[in-house]
Amino acid sequence: MTSPGPLDPLLTRLRGLTPPAFGAEPEGERLARIRRSPNFKDGVFQNPLGARHRPTGSAVEFAKVYFEREARARRAPSGALPVHPTTLADLSKPPASGLRLTWMGHSSVLAEIDGVRVLFDPVWGDRCSPFPFAGPKRLHPVPLPLAALGPVDVVVISHDHYDHLDMPTIRELAGTDTVFAVPLGVGAHLELWGVAPSRLRELDWNESTEVAGIRLTATPARHFCGRGLRNTQHTLWASWVAEGPEHRIYHSGDTGYMPRGTDGVASFASIGAEHGPFDATMIQIGAYSEYWPDIHMTPAEGVRAHLDLQGGAPHGVMLPIHWGTFNLAPHPWAEPGEGTLAAGAAERQPLALPRPGEPFEPTGDAVPDAPWWRGFATAPAGGWPEPAVSVPQEAPTA
What we know:
Layout: H1 8-17, H2 28-36, E1 40-41, E2 44-45, H3 59-67, H4 69-74, H5 87-91, E3 99-105, E4 108-113, E5 116-120, E6 154-156, H6 167-173, E7 179-183, H7 187-192, E8 200-203, E9 208-211, E10 214-219, E11 239-243, E12 248-251, H8 268-275, E13 280-284, H9 299-309, E14 317-321, H10 335-347, E15 359-360
Parallel strand pairs: 5-6, 6-7, 7-8, 12-13, 13-14
Antiparallel strand pairs: 1-2, 3-4, 3-15, 4-5, 9-10, 10-11, 11-12
Helix pairs in contact: 8-9, 9-10
């Protein structure tokens, strides 16, 4: 047994000042399992193809872009954003097709798949921040209170950044019977916030668990992790596949584009080859920048990722996520929606473009596809382009 070092009392006091929202560092068997992971090397989790996760180039140039007055005005909607007014009533009826998605804003999606309710990256907080008084503030209200959402069979977390893992939301869900499926290491945060270890399913890439008849698989992504002042890279990030008896869906979490590469290197194409094709994908298309090109996708890259997941051709429905709710990048607020609309039309790929809280059935006839955001954004010079003609959806195959 080692005697206390001279800095131990100071470290103990500093830990006492750490806000609970910072979460907890993995310890014990959890940390040992992390160190045994084939994706953990040189003290950190590794990315497919590597990834830069700090702004590149001149900090001065970045600041000029970010704080320029006119650009700042375009990064927010021009008026109060509406949410779907009848979310609660719509969710009270089971989906006729067996599959229904409800985008709650940003990356939060309720997926009802073959009788099971899966809630991806739930963030009901007003800010994506460890502090209630600072940080990016929500640009629209949540479509309905979390307590009104009803029973959730499993909560799936993609990674531990504040805009995907929200402590107040998790603490409220900890009082229910839901199971939590999370990437390796993230369970330490949830245990600190009151989730019982017996309700955790903590997975490395390419590991699976079954909840209520739905098979959940953590698949690779190109991103990074961290919540506190120290970013130890000891928690994994992941995309997710949810497969039921009749339907398959994919949630990208946060990721840079992963092109088809050498054998053994993860890519969207390799994920699709193993788990697809999908009835629907939920793909990150916002908060991108040339200053961090490896960890978030542009709209064009998001559409390309969807096509890769589907074997290279248009198939299923793509739901754009990670945009519209929080201001996290220098691009205009409406640009992710417009860019996805254009890229989808160019590839003849069906898109779902719901307002926050608007449920839809990807394999049904009434998939929302109108650019609703145009009424709340600054129009470009020359006006908005004509909306793309809706593309008939290809019937999904098993």
